[in-house]
Predict the 3D structure of the following.
Amino acid sequence: MNILVIGSGAREHSLINKLHSDTNLIWAYPGNPGIFQLALKTNLLSMNFDEIFGFCNENIIDLVVIGPEQPLAEGIVDYLEQKNIAVFGPSKLAAEIESSKVFSKDLMQKYGIPTARFQSFSRTDSNEEITKFANSLGFPIVVKADGLAAGKGVAICNDLEEFEDTIKEYFSGKFNEASQRIVIEEFMEGEEASIFAITDGNDYVLLPSAQDHKRIGEGDTGLNTGGMGAFSPAPIVTDEILEKVESTIIKPILLAMKSENRIFKGCLYVGLMIDKNSNSKVVEFNARFGDPETEAVLELVEGDFAALLYSSAIGKIDKTAIQIVENKFASCVILASEGYPESFKKGFVINGLNTQIDDSVKIFHSGTSEKDNQIVTNGGRVLAIVSSDNSLKQSLENVYKMISNINFENKYFRNDIGHRALNNNN
């Protein structure tokens, strides 16, 4: 199969690693130095849809896999499908389940899908009306930008002053157009978990559950990031909880999207909050694989991953294409540039990438580039270090051992990935 993967992060590197086989020929755009150890470079110069179609046509591409959310929100799937190219990912209308928090929350409310109490507002609404609703929820409360904000458009406000400052920032353009509308919702107590459903819009295959760590600081403190680490499966997602999530969230949301003429095919990311009574509510839906959860989850997937994604793309999901590895755990720790998610320096040489300590350990590139035949830092999140083993503890020990061998100036990482699960002796 000839496959084009769109994206340039550790998520796409992980996807390509899983798609890679003797019978698949893979190209990537924009890609990164790690990705190009497995995939071919394209001659593309931009994310122009006409140019991408021209490349697909010239190279007889059988499947396009879209990694990041932005091209989905802009309608790349609609465009390529009109040209008879099979694409793994949802249409522009279906991708609104991620690209518009207001749409997503309204949809859940309409179809009775459990989520936090909320109300949406725009910058033209009165401050009195907004504050009145916030006070009715009680603090802390959550403020979310309506549009795409690279995983950073969520703020938890502990008091009225912090809330008013956040609202002012958002409406003043902190996330440009993405924060001209907002969702204000109640703060939910519990543990977060993620579920990926690979779907053709009707049926689906579930990948192993995961938990990620969004905060920059240890103990899950500090600013939100795109993700500092993850592990899979998430022990909190028991078989009983998963069965209930399928019946009350996954099946209903796929039916809801179908009823709204927005059939969702691709990877439906379900972000959950699970409370002390094992009740689950939706924190958010995403229209693609999560990052860094994907890097851990895919280590527990065997079989023909390309066949699974292709079957989703053509609307006939093949549930036999993959198998889930039982009785194993996988973990991922992000090496970042110190100062991320705010200001940071880049361009530092990365040493130790060729260190071999264990076949189970993989290095996926995120924010890297090549300069003078050396790999250098080129982003906030630089590398994802991944391992699978018979226990989460051993998996993480493998990862941190590898991390000790990789060095670059201003290297930053969290030492406590998986701390909640480890406290439960996994």
Q: What stands out?
A: The two ends are 39 Å apart (CA to CA). The chain has 13 helices and 25 strands.
